[in-house]
Amino acid sequence: MAHGTHARRRLTVIGTAVALGLAAATGTAQASGPRLSASPSPIDIGSFGGSTFVNSLDNDGEAVGYSFFGGGAYHYHAFEWKEGTLHDLGSLAGPDGNSTANAINDADEIVGFTDTPAGTQVPYVYRHGQMTQLGDQGDPLAINDAGVIVGFIGGSGGTTPVLWRHGTMTPLPVPADCLNGRATAITENGTIIGDCLSPGFARTLEWKGDYRTVRDLGTGFSGTGVNNRGLIAGTDNTTGQAAIRHLSGTIQDLGFVPGFTASSTARAITDNGNVAGTSRSLGDSVAFRWCHGTMTTLATPAGTSNATAETINAHGQVAGEVRDATYISHAVIWP
Q1: CATH number for the domain that contains residue 295
Q2: Each residue of 86-117: b (16+ CB within 10 Å) or e?
Q3: Distance from first CA to last CA of the chain, Å, rounded?
Q4: How many CA atoms lie within 13 A of 146 on its CB side?
Q5: What is the pTM of this model?
Q6: pLDDT tens digit string along 142-179?
Q7: How many domains does the chain have?
Q8: Which domain holds residue 321?
Q9: How far apart are CA 57 and CA 60, in angstroms?
Q10: Complete edge-to-edge strand list for the sheet that includes strand 329-334
C-alpha cells in the first residue's frame, strides 16, 4: 500500500474548488444506505503542547504529521509516532524552525517540508534518523515503498504537479487549461492521482506509465486516494457523498452517517477496498470506516467533537483528529 496525504491540508495549501451539482461521471451506483456499526475508542498519540494533525499511517501503525508547541506560539514540528512514542523530527533550521511530515512508507521513509537557516521552506526526505533537503522548492505529499515521491512546486502564482525519483524532480503534464496542479497520491505500481483547477472547477487527474501524458477524469468526482487496483476514493460532486470511482468510470456512492448528511468524503482506500472518510453536519463531523458495504462510525471520545479521518492502512487502522472544547485538535488512531 502506498502512503500519502491524499490531498491532505498543509499550512499553505492551495485553494481547491468543489464543483457540486456539475458534470456527472459516467454511471453512478447509488447506495441504498450504509449498514452502521460502532468502533472502539481511539488512541490519542500526544502532542508537543498544542494542536496536532496526522497526515499518514504506515502498515506497522506508525503515524506522521505535525504538532504545534504550547504557549500560543505559531511554531510547529514534524513528528513520527512509533511504538507509542511521539518523536520530534526537528527542522533544518534548528529548534525554532517549522516543519511538517506529510507521508511515510513501509520503509520508514518520511517526506514533508522544512524551514532552512536562510528562512526558506524546502522539501525533505527523512531516512535513518536524518533529514535531507530534497531540492530548493516543492511540497512532497506522498511516497510509495519504492521511494518515488509526488507533490507540487510553486505558490500563490500557480503550482505544478511533480515527482521526485532518485533525487531528481520531474514536472508532470496537465491539461492546457489547468491551474494549480498537484500530485497527491501514488500507488506501489506507480499510478499517480492529483488535481487541478480549470477556471472555477476542480478536476481529478491521473498519470501512469512513463508519465508523459495525463488522463483527465473530469469534474464530477474529486479523488483523494488511490489503491493498487486503480480504485479511487473521493467525493461524488453530483451528490456530495463519499464515493469510490471504479476502473470502468462508475461512481459508487457510500452514503452518509445518519445525522451527518450535509456532505461526506472518502479520504483513503486500501487494496481490499476498505475506506476511511468523514461525514459532516452543519456544525460537526464524524469519522467512519467503510468495509464491504458496512459503514462503521468511529468513536468520538467524551468531551470532543468534529472527528475527521485522514488515512487508513492495510490492517484497517484509521488515523485522524478530534477537537476538544478549547478548539485544540488531537491526533488519534482508531484500531
Answers
A1: 2.130.10.150
A2: beebbbbbeeebbbbbbbbbbebbbbbbbbbe
A3: 18
A4: 12
A5: 0.88
A6: 999 999 999 999 977 789 999 999 989 999 999 998 88
A7: 1
A8: 3-334
A9: 8
A10: 43-44, 329-334, 318-324, 304-312
